[in-house]
Amino acid sequence: MDAHILSTLNTKLHVGDSPLFDDPTLYRTIVGALQYVTLTRPDLAFVVNKVCQFMDSPSQNQWAAVKCILRYLKLTMHQRFVIPRSSNLVLQAFTDSDWAGSSDDRKSTSGYTIFLGNASISWSSKSDINNNSLVLASGEYHVITPLIQILVIFLVIS
Length: 158
Prior knowledge:
This protein is α+β, with helices and mostly antiparallel strands. The protein folds into two domains: 3-75, no CATH class; 91-157, no CATH class. Helix content is 42%, strand content 17%. It is built from six helices and three strands. The protein has helices at residues 3-7, 24-37, 45-52, 60-75, 133-138, 141-157; strands at residues 91-98, 108-116, 119-128. It has a three-stranded antiparallel β-sheet, with helices on one face. Helix 2 runs antiparallel to helix 3. The protein is globular and about 50 Å long.
């Protein structure tokens, strides 16, 4: 709908990319509240995670990104998280990783999502602390392990 607002956040945010924001307590309060919003608005999960990475010393650019998220939230407040009816109840899982993708700390980001029919029923994204060669050599397998565990649980339940 109004995804073009969030597409402006496509620029990479970095530590020290602009002068420091003058009220870091306000930044932390707003971003902390946005973390709770992502429970019912998974479309915001990525961008909220991104601005959460700058809680220590937010810059003016990062504050501008938070305001952009708030504008998007205001324009889409009537959207809901709906699991649509579907006769196709196929369980599908997707995973991806970005090894050492952050230019600030060289951490890796990985994640997965699980679909039942057309509805995403589980998802996860995390920034990896371990960035050694063993983890890098294991590639996608490092990300697949928790995904397989959740899929096994779904299969046992059904």
